[in-house]
Design a protein that fits this description.
single chain, alpha/beta, Rossmann fold, 7-stranded parallel sheet, 3-stranded mixed sheet, 12 helices, binds nicotinamide-adenine-dinucleotide, binds thymidine-5'-diphosphate
Length: 377
């Protein structure tokens, strides 16, 4: 029996982690602690919300006293921390909210965990503070390539896997942090606080840095769900700059599986990078999305290519992200289960089959779900 708080469980990745833990561990008590910002949507968890081992608590992670009381009341012995402001474009417009939630919120959770756990007779024995972070803390990689070979080229990871890459450098765990956006700067700062709490107080922490996720329940402000929805409605697709930026994409359920494995088997104080060795230029993904949506809607394949609209580039737009997840593969045996083509097919089908979910989110109606579900009980 364990009692685990999962923060940000009503968001995109958090909802997949909550679902996995609630279904896989009936003996655990899973507490979803979420403030329900614009990005939190309890409809993401409709299928598990009545399970006896699941509880939702509406709370701000910055509420130190509230978190401490909850930890004491529920005898919490693990925290998996995903709650954050997560969208780079919003961080450019409003960096304060990002510093408040991502830095001060993480600090408040760390302080609450320290205060509660260190007063117990067994102290930190059997406890875990697992912080979910991003590859964006490492900054941007160049499109460097071996002499005479134009990217993308086939390369071999130290694990032996062959994959296509747009450069010969990758993010490894020992790389210096060089965040460029207010979002990644705030995440980097929170990572430093987590490590500082291990080194100073002995809290059993783990940090993971993952590449871009895609899949069901992602808020349609991010590239993939936004563009699927726009193609469906034949609305323009705003491609930043020339669409040449490269991201390394991982199916969200593979990330959730990695989190489960690392939470249970990872080594305290370690960092693990999580990624799929799956680099794509934005413009190439966008073309795949157009072809896939058109095919499913019975439109001639590629009919919507003219929706592509090049717009002013994002300020400080990182050129390339590429994760080397060899350490996780070697030490814990994790690897992604889905090929990207399969993952994109599943993802497009999910958004087209769940238009009600998408329409609810884009209309703002989803924010009434909590009021209906919880306030009138
Ligand atoms: P998301 O924006 O979809 O969800 C964030 C969740 O956190 C929402 O449910 C929101 O209500 C909640 N939240 C926000 N502020 C809060 C606060 N002050 N108190 C309590 N809850 C609050 O985010 P996501 O894409 O699911 O990302 C989850 C985590 O994973 C983040 O920490 C993010 O940095 C990290 N991450 C995301 C990606 C990605 O591709 N999405 C990749 C790597 C790492
Ligand atoms: P996004 O989904 O916002 O994730 P991140 O910024 O964390 O990588 O964006 C993915 C890529 O797509 C990124 O290079 C920015 C680009 N992009 C666009 O070109 N147009 C858009 O409307 C959005 C939201 C993103």
């Amino acid at each position: 029996m364990r009692t685990i708080i999962i923060t940000g469980g009503a968001g995109f990745i958090g909802s997949h982690v909550v679902r996995l833990f609630v279904n896989k561990y009936p003996d655990y008590k899973i507490i979803n602690l979420d403030k329900l910002t614009y990005a939190g949507n309890l409809a993401n968890l409709k299928d598990i919300e009545h399970k006896p081992n699941y509880k939702f608590v509406k709370m701000d992670i910055c509420d130190f006293r509230g978190v401490l009381k909850l930890m004491k009341d529920e005898s919490v012995d693990g925290i998996i921390h995903l709650a954050a402001e997560s969208h780079v474009d919003r961080s450019i417009k409003d960096p304060f909210t990002f510093a408040q939630t991502n830095v001060m919120g993480t600090l408040s959770l760390l302080q609450a965990a320290k205060a509660y756990w260190e007063a117990l007779p067994e102290k930190y024995e059997g406890k875990r503070f697992y912080h979910i972070s991003t590859d964006e803390v490492y900054g941007a990689l160049q499109m460097t390539h071996p002499e005479g070979i134009e990217p993308p080229f086939t390369t071999k990871a130290s694990s032996g896997t062959h994959h296509l890459a747009y450069g010969d450098k990758f993010f490894t765990e020992d790389l210096k942090y060089q965040p460029h956006s207010p979002y990644s700067a705030a995440k980097a700062s929170s990572d430093h606080f987590v490590r500082a709490f291990h080194d100073t107080f002995g809290i059993p922490t783990i940090v993971t840095n993952c590449s871009n996720n895609y899949g069901p329940y992602q808020f349609p402000e991010k590239l993939i769900p936004l563009f699927i929805n726009n193609i469906r409605h034949r609305k323009p697709l705003p491609v930043y700059g020339k669409g040449e930026n490269v991201r390394d994409w991982l199916y969200v359920e593979d990330h959730a599986r990695a989190i489960d494995l690392i939470f249970h088997k990872g080594t305290v104080a370690e960092t693990y990078n999580i990624g799929g060795f799956n680099e794509w230029k934005n413009i190439d993904i966008i073309k795949v999305l157009i072809n896939t949506v058109d095919r499913h809607l019975g439109r001639p394949e590629g009919a919507d290519m003219d929706l592509i609209t090049y717009v002013t580039d994002r300020a400080g737009h990182d050129l390339r992200y590429a994760i080397d997840s060899t350490k996780l593969q070697r030490e814990l045996g994790w690897e992604p289960s889905l090929q990207f083509e399969e993952g994109i097919e599943k993802t497009v089908c999910w958004y087209l089959d769940n238009q009600y979910w998408l329409d609810n989110v884009t209309s703002g109606d989803y924010q009434k779900y909590y009021d209906n579900m919880y306030k009138n009980r």
